[in-house]
UniProtKB/TrEMBL annotation:
Signal peptide: none annotated. Pathway: Carbohydrate biosynthesis; gluconeogenesis. Its EC number is 2.7.9.2. It comes from Kriegella aquimaris. This is Phosphoenolpyruvate synthase. The keyword Manganese does not apply.
Length: 970
């Protein structure tokens, strides 16, 4: 719906961990943790008996029988208790010490449970972490009591149907860490031990990568051989660690006796799922064919997921989840034994592993219903290249969605812990590598390599081994320093002449030469639209790709994305003469456009009723947001709110006032700054110095505008029109203040999201201050840099303001009246997120292609845990999302389809426009009612789309080429 510049603030300060809590000092916390590592008691103060009557007794004074039984365990240090109370950070948690509801921590999106899992991970990779010495503090933790508490926790938790409906993935993952059955997580331990060895002895890194990426039973002998080869260089500690790793690997790869699953299903006898499990055991206990075993195991995984709610007993649900984990472990071990020889076998393997991923919770059941028909289309003799490409795209999606499920559940806590313990950042990667998604990704990559060979659509990505997992989003080319950001991107100061690879792009990205992201957000976010508009090459890649490219960070590279989405990323030394010629120095004005100001009317100094504004006023009285929304109000009155428009003239009238501390007006100060900048250029002063001068002057101007006195007659009119048009007095109704400049939605420049929108503001003084903040926003560094990059006369920016009442939508998003993914001009692209504003702000949105001929295709589900609500009291409320249901329903999709037809047919006629391109529409639904918030032309970079170079690297693909599914892969 609307660009929320405060999203980052909300995530940082209103997150479940920090909500209502004091902000911690990361350096102090690092120091505190270092002290616990060296303390023989770790985070614990002492040991006590905790008796049944609530009394606490000394270690040598057990609970008497008449008030027993009691449990003995440690108490937390006072500072650890304060950390939990003040900051919701919990170190060294003891299950026996924690009530089930507190540990589940539903009010804070289950943060305590997730922190318990992070703690377990950190202990495994950092020799006990906060318990480095405290792990030997005898009596602090009683294993049998912890396990009993784990069982009690699950028996409490699994009585709740909604927990399994909404949090199946998290609950199932938690079983890997919370003691409840005596099982060990050998897979996670194997990865941790190999990491610790490689960190201490770099020569082991190659084997560590193998164990993390493609673990096989044969790796045990490789580790033994490594130990033997390096025996003269290994100290006692390393020898012990290698021996421990070999023991763990031996346990992990020990064949699972399928008959033993029956002992885990004792309480399920004669139930439907119990019978299914018995059938599986009898059919597969002696099977030697890996294909049959993997197919049957994936089927059972999914059946357990689908049927677990029918089993109402919590102990039986716990058994089913334990069996599910064992089945995934069995898959993980045996998938390498399935070596497809033909294309059909490869497609079957992918469909089978995707089904297993759904059963393990990495995808939701409704998502599987959307993609399963595509993935199972291999019961035929041949397919066209286009059909195979659709399967490949869908299969890639399953891998991305699986990884995104892990990130959505744990990223918040990982970010928090990483601020004081950097090792935490490996947790998400560890979870993904320990899942069936690892093997699914490898299988999809193999299919991608095959299709790339058949279509000649081949990526060239430095020397990485899996380039087919990279896919282009926006065409373009760039040359510059490669910067690979493995951690959080929010504190990175980007440069317009560098190429960046992020896990997720910053929410307020400034101009860059090129970009690639693991979490692409969605294809219609403001960042994506700006990249598309300006011809900035943009691609999506995998976590593994990012890790492989880290070693090239800091090198100069050439980067290009073709019109068909194939990607080139190579060192400067390998550039061709043609590629070098693309970056010959050009005149500053080349490819830039001029903001039209000849029609602007600055004499309109009265507030306008939105009903009296239409498209013809764009660039004259106000910007295109207000003009186009006024047009929509005329056309779809019941779908557009009432509104006020503060025109350009009121802004200019205020800018003509004397600027405090200066000899001129605000406007003259701005003009003088640009004149001085031109004079500096005429003296051959570097562009960097000129830009720094301008940014300093703009800071002065912004500060002055924010302190500007608003004219009394303007405030009087604003109060009158709030009451007359919006129906309530100023200060009684929450509104959005939307920046609406004359530099937006030009023929060749979108300007999407560059200037400030304040949302859901109620307080009168905040609204008045907000008007000044919006006026000042075109002079921020980010907005100015984007304009400088593309506009000839960036000084001629005039902001108007659209003031509209808030609509607390259930979900909102963007409609593009063009199939961006399909390439069909008649299709539609939609991206929606829960709550207000997530889709345009780059959140991972639910995205569809809606086909012109009927039907639709899910391109991505929403994977954002938090979303904004808009309470009547103003500001934002933050809600927690779960993913078990789609954002859009069938009725919504049908209404969007019909609305798009109406727009295409009537908008050019109503506006007397010859524009025949696609539209970018922001909209939302509240109680299934469609609300419209904005419409603008969808602007693409025509130069990038028609570039001779990009055309030359775009292969001519025969989409109708037919391939027999019996074709061999090699």
């Amino acid at each position: 719906m609307i660009k929320y510049i405060l999203i980052t603030y909300a995530i940082l300060f209103l997150s479940p961990i920090a909500n209502g809590q004091k902000k911690w000092d990361a350096d102090q916390l690092k120091k505190q943790i270092a002290e616990y590592k060296n303390d023989i008691r770790g985070p614990y103060k002492d040991i006590r008996w905790f008796c049944g009557d609530g009394s606490v007794r000394l270690p040598k004074d057990p609970c008497p029988e008449n008030i027993g039984p009691g449990v003995q365990h440690a108490r937390y240090k006072d500072a650890v208790l304060a950390l939990g109370k003040d900051h919701h950070i919990y170190l060294g948690q003891l299950l026996t010490y924690t009530a089930a509801a507190d540990f589940w921590d539903a009010e804070n999106d289950h943060s305590r449970l997730k922190q318990y899992q992070l703690d377990k991970y950190l202990r495994s990779v950092d020799n006990g972490w906060v318990n480095q010495k405290g792990q030997f503090y005898r009596g602090a933790v009683q294993a049998e009591d912890e396990e009993a508490s784990g069982i009690a926790f699950y028996k409490w938790l699994l009585t709740k149907d909604n927990v399994l409906k909404q949090n199946f993935f998290l609950v199932r993952q938690s079983l890997k860490d919370i003691p409840h059955s005596g099982d060990d997580n050998f897979a996670q331990l194997m990865r941790s031990q190999s990491k610790v060895i490689a960190d201490e002895y770099p020569a082991f890194m190659e084997l560590r990568v193998k164990i993390h990426g493609q673990p096989e039973a044969d790796d045990i002998e490789k580790v033994k051989a490594f130990r033997q080869k390096n025996r003269a260089k290994l100290n006692t500690s390393l020898n012990q660690k290698l021996n421990g790793l070999i023991a763990t690997m031996t346990n992990f790869f020990e064949p699972l006796d399928i008959k033993n699953l029956g002992t885990k299903a004792a309480a399920l006898k004669s139930t439907p799922l119990g019978n299914t499990i018995d059938d599986y055991i009898s059919k597969n206990s002696k099977v030697s064919d890996p294909v049959q075993l993997i197919v049957e195991t994936s089927n059972l995984l999914l059946q357990i997921r689908q049927g677990i709610l029918a089993e109402k007993r919590p102990s039986s649900r716990l058994q089913l989840l334990d069996i599910s984990l064992k089945l995934e472990e069995l898959l993980f071990k045996n998938v390498p034994n399935w070596q497809p020889q033909t294309l059909k076998q490869q497609l079957q393997k992918i469909e089978t592993l995707a089904k297993g991923a759904v059963g393990a919770g990495y995808l939701e059941l409704w998502e599987w219903e959307q993609i399963q028909p595509t993935l199972s289309k291999f019961d035929t003799e041949q397919m066209t290249l286009a059909q195979l490409t659709t399967i490949l795209e869908t299969a890639r999606s399953t891998v991305e969605w699986s990884a995104a499920m892990v990130k959505a559940n744990y990223q918040e806590e990982v970010n928090t812990y990483s601020s004081f313990e950097p090792k935490t950042y490996g947790f998400i990667d560890d979870r993904i590598r320990g899942s069936i998604a690892l093997h699914l990704g490898k299988s999809v990559g193999d299919l991608g390599d095959f299709i790339a060979r058949e279509s000649a659509l081949v990526n060239t990505i430095m020397d990485i081994t899996n380039p087919s997992t990279v896919r282009g989003l926006n065409p373009g080319y760039a040359f510059g320093e490669l910067v690979v950001v493995a951690g959080s991107p929010e504190d990175i100061e980007v440069s317009s002449n560098k190429i960046y690879i992020f896990r997720k792009s910053p929410s307020d990205l400034k101009p860059v030469a090129g970009i690639a992201t693991v979490a692409e957000g969605n294809m219609v976010s403001h960042v994506q639209l700006l990249a598309r508009n300006l011809g900035i090459p943009n691609a999506a890649l995998s976590d593994e790709n990012l890790q492989s490219l880290l070693k090239y960070s800091g090198q100069n590279v050439f980067y290009a994305v073709s019109n068909k989405g194939n990607v080139i990323l190579k060192p400067e030394s390998q550039m061709t003469a043609q590629e070098r010629g693309l970056f010959m120095k050009k005149n500053r004005s080349t490819d830039k456009i001029e903001v039209p100001i000849e029609k602007i009317r600055l004499d309109q100094t009265q507030i306008l009723n939105l009903r009296n504004v239409d498209a013809s006023d764009s660039g004259e009285l106000c910007g295109p947001k207000a003009a186009n929304l006024g047009q929509l109000k005329k056309m779809f009155s019941d779908k557009v709110v009432e509104g006020l428009v503060i025109p350009f003239g009121i802004f200019r009238e205020h800018m003509d006032q004397a600027m405090p501390g200066q000899n001129d007006s605000y406007w003259q100060f701005l003009k003088t700054m640009f004149a001085n900048a031109d004079e500096m250029r005429s003296k051959n002063i570097s562009e960097a110095e000129v830009e720094n001068f301008q940014l300093l002057q703009l800071q002065i101007l912004r500060d002055a505008i924010n302190k500007m006195d608003l004219k009394a007659e303007f405030i009087t009119q604003l109060e009158r029109d709030f009451k007359g048009i919006l129906g309530k007095s100023l200060g009684e109704i929450p509104v959005f203040l939307r920046s609406d400049t004359n530099m937006e939605d030009l023929k060749d420049f979108t300007g999407a999201g560059l200037n400030l929108t304040l949302f859901n503001v109620v307080d009168k003084q905040k609204i008045l201050n907000g008007i000044k903040q919006v006026w000042a926003s075109p002079y921020t560094e980010r907005s100015f840099k984007w304009r400088q990059k593309y506009l000839l006369n960036p000084e001629n920016v005039f902001p108007s303001i659209l003031v509209i009442p808030s609509v607390d939508v259930d979900y909102s998003g963007v409609l593009i009246t063009k199939g961006i993914n399909s390439g069909n001009e008649k299709d539609l692209t939609v991206a929606f997120s829960r709550g207000a504003g997530g889709a345009v702000d780059g959140q991972s949105a639910e995205t569809y292609t809606i086909y012109d001929k009927g039907g639709y295709r899910l391109l991505a589900p929403a994977r954002e845990t938090y979303y904004n609500s808009l309470p009547q009291t103003g500001g934002t409320g933050q809600q927690t999302a779960t993913f078990e249901k789609a954002v859009l329903n069938e009725k919504n999709i049908g209404e969007i389809r019909e609305f798009a037809k109406t727009i295409r047919k009537t908008l050019p006629k109503e506006t007397k426009s010859d524009y025949d391109g696609a539209y970018d529409v922001e909209l939302g639904f509240q109680n299934d009612k469609l609300w419209l918030f904005q419409i603008r032309p969808f602007v693409e970079n025509k130069k990038a789309l028609s570039s001779e170079y990009l055309e030359s690297i775009t292969p001519k693909i025969d989409s109708n080429k037919e391939l027999l599914l019996s074709t061999r892969l090699q």
